[in-house]
Amino acid sequence: MYNGILNVYKEKGYTSHDVVAKLRGILKQKKIGHTGTLDPDAEGVLPICLGKGTKLCDMLEDKDKTYLATLLLGQATDTQDTSGKLIESREVQCSELEVREAINSFIGDYYQIPPMYSALKVNGKKLYELAREGKTIEREARLVQIYKIEIKEINLPRVKIEVSCSKGTYIRTLCNDIGEKLGCLGCMEELKRMKANGLAIEDSLKIDEIADLKVANQLSERIVPIEYVFRAYPAIVVDERYNKLIYNGNQFSRECVKNTEVFNQDYNKVRVYDETKAFIGIYKYDTKREQFSPVKMFLGE
Questions:
Q1: What is the pTM of this model?
Q2: What is the pLDDT of residues 77-97, one digit of tens each?
């Protein structure tokens, strides 16, 4: 069984669920999950968790992402992208300077109302299911962060932008809101995710490439180890005398640690290894009790 993270290039036309289903067939294993859903018309980086890596799914979502998007001004649709039904169109009379100023005004903290065509749940039902029934319900604005917007090209009515943002940001809603601010409306025409969870598009693999690497027995070389996600955390090695503690997911004290120089670092969470360099899991340090407590274990299945 494969364990770790696979940097998949999701192509247009596939849902994120489609990618998982295809990989289950190619890799011949059931334990596969994805993080950070991409719409069917979007493409780019889709981190896929394999085997023990599926334990990462709830931890990867908090990471920042970078997208390359094409904003189409002059149109508004029900889905906020060009795959949806046209609601209204207006003439684009704004200047390039006005477009730049409007786009840059969204950098920083930004309260965004999630679109009706999204997988968010309200009273147990997904918003897009309600939208398909012709229902629109009130949604509460959520705080997201736009860290950076780089305007790549302006060829009105189209604007190509690269956006670095926080979890939960809808780029098509950003496009819609920019159009609203300019008074000419706007929607998203294209979307490509360039980076997610430290994985870059230049290192990603398409489904066919993954299948070829599997046949050639070379796929393991392209799977990112689980601990890569936590590379910013200090690594500690537990003395083999205390292996029973870490193998059973118990707490342990500082005196169990072999590489005591790590205590000179500023840390809250750490990567824990045994003396064979096997990755055990992520632990949190309790300063009052001077003990390490497990946050997520990756030993075993």
A1: 0.86
A2: 999 999 999 999 999 999 999
